[in-house]
């Protein structure tokens, strides 16, 4: 019995990114939200964090009036509508401008600092989950260090019980937070202060040490270390395939017609090399095999060129956020000789995989005259591929 796929979650929240500040303390010649962090602008990373969340249905960026060109360069492609508005003279004034641009169809709004580019899906999920029961919710970390009072000298200590380090996104039901900001006189440190002044309850949700706010020059170095150290999703897939010899004057191997006294038999063009690499990619994605996507019982695939299968696997990997970083193919046969064609096979395989030839290996071995390959009854192939999602 086929189980129907679950419907994707309906977006219910807008992300409001506050990016109108000047960021003077962080140094640099441009505002910190537009400075580069490991190849991307800080703001670009922040926007992607929300664009990739299934509950986010709109993104509103509040920017400075002078930053149009910087924003255009940092703006990523997003599946959601992304609008930018001009901020005010203070943070709370900027937030009010952003709230006015939020679509009324949104249930919630998540207000986030542009300078927190490493916010995780877990932090966002925690805020959204709490909003099901509360008018407001925000992530925080408990204060664990001893606290002193004083200037250059310690003049006293402060009990840290019940103290928290506030983070963003600070989430609210849209109507109540609009009303809270409309009633506020200004000067709030954050949106939780605005909400509480209006009488809204705000739940504390789990924060993350990685969800740092870039404020000082050293914070860029710390953020860069975190970006480099974030765990990547690395997948390895294996493929194995066999095709027997039959009538013909050539064999298809890695997309090339190699002259031979016999051909390979199969429902398609029987390219055992491309089939094996294709199955390795599907395996890394846990997405079945060639037969899953191109059933041999379907006449439309009879005689089709095998690059069609491999291209499908490559595109599926890309759609799931993976890059193919390496492919290693071993052909097992006595004949034809693979060595003279290995370079051209690598080039063609690299072209279809959309990677450099220096990331593709094609090699051959015999089975020392043992087994069906040793008796020259067919060709077998083994392949391993590596996929990486940042």
TrEMBL record:
HAMAP family: IspD, IspDF, IspF. Bifunctional enzyme that catalyzes the formation of 4-diphosphocytidyl-2-C-methyl-D-erythritol from CTP and 2-C-methyl-D-erythritol 4-phosphate (MEP) (IspD), and catalyzes the conversion of 4-diphosphocytidyl-2-C-methyl-D-erythritol 2-phosphate (CDP-ME2P) to 2-C-methyl-D-erythritol 2,4-cyclodiphosphate (ME-CPP) with a corresponding release of cytidine 5-monophosphate (CMP) (IspF). This is Bifunctional enzyme IspD/IspF. Residues 1-234 are annotated as: 2-C-methyl-D-erythritol 4-phosphate cytidylyltransferase. Its EC number is 2.7.7.60, 4.6.1.12. The record marks 25, 32, 267, 366 as: Transition state stabilizer. Its cofactor is a divalent metal cation. One of its GO terms (molecular function) is 2-C-methyl-D-erythritol 4-phosphate cytidylyltransferase activity. It catalyses: 4-CDP-2-C-methyl-D-erythritol 2-phosphate = 2-C-methyl-D-erythritol 2,4-cyclic diphosphate + CMP; 2-C-methyl-D-erythritol 4-phosphate + CTP + H(+) = 4-CDP-2-C-methyl-D-erythritol + diphosphate. Pathway: Isoprenoid biosynthesis; isopentenyl diphosphate biosynthesis via DXP pathway; isopentenyl diphosphate from 1-deoxy-D-xylulose 5-phosphate: step 4/6; Isoprenoid biosynthesis; isopentenyl diphosphate biosynthesis via DXP pathway; isopentenyl diphosphate from 1-deoxy-D-xylulose 5-phosphate: step 2/6. The keyword Transferase applies. Residues 234-387 form the 2-C-methyl-D-erythritol 2,4-cyclodiphosphate synthase domain. A divalent metal cation binds at residues 241, 243, 275. It comes from Rhodophyticola porphyridii. Coiled coil: none annotated. Residues 235-390 are annotated as: 2-C-methyl-D-erythritol 2,4-cyclodiphosphate synthase. Belongs to the IspD/TarI cytidylyltransferase family. IspD subfamily.
């Amino acid at each position: 019995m086929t189980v129907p796929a679950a419907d994707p979650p309906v977006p219910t929240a807008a992300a409001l990114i506050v990016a109108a500040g000047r960021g003077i303390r962080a140094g640099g010649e441009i505002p910190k939200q537009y400075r580069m962090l490991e190849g991307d602008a800080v703001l670009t990373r922040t926007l992607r964090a929300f664009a990739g969340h299934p509950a986010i249905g709109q993104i509103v960026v509040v920017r400075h009036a002078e930053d149009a060109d910087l924003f255009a360069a940092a703006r990523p492609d997003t599946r959601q509508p992304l609008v930018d508005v001009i901020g005010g003279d203070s943070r709370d004034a900027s937030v009010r401008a952003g709230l006015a641009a939020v679509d009324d169809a949104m249930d919630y709004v998540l207000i986030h600092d542009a300078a927190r580019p490493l916010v995780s899906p877990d932090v966002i999920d925690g805020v959204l989950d709490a909003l099901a029961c509360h008018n407001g919710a925000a992530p925080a970390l408990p204060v664990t260090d001893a606290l002193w009072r004083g200037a250059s000298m310690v003049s006293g200590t402060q009990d840290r019980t019940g103290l928290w380090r506030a983070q963003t996104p600070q989430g609210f039901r849209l109507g109540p937070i609009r009303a809270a900001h409309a009633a506020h006189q200004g000067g709030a440190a954050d949106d939780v202060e605005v909400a509480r002044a209006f009488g809204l309850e705000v739940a504390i949700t789990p924060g993350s040490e990685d969800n740092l706010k870039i404020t000082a020059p050293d914070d860029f170095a710390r953020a860069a270390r975190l970006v480099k150290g974030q765990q990547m999703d690395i997948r390895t897939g294996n493929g194995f395939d066999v095709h027997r010899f039959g009538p013909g004057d050539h064999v298809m191997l890695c997309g090339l017609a190699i002259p031979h006294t016999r051909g390979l038999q199969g429902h398609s063009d029987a390219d055992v090399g491309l089939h094996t690499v294709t199955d390795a990619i599907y395996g890394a994605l846990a997405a079945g095999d060639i037969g899953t996507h191109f059933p041999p019982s379907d006449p439309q695939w009879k005689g089709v060129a095998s690059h069609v299968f491999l291209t499908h696997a490559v595109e599926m990997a890309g759609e799931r956020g993976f890059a193919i970083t390496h492919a290693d193919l071993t052909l097992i046969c006595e004949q034809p000789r693979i060595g003279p064609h290995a370079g051209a096979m690598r080039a063609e395989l690299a072209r279809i995989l959309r990677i450099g030839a220096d990331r593709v290996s094609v090699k051959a071995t015999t089975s020392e005259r043992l087994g069906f390959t040793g008796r020259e009854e067919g060709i077998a192939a083994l392949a391993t591929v590596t996929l990486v999602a940042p």
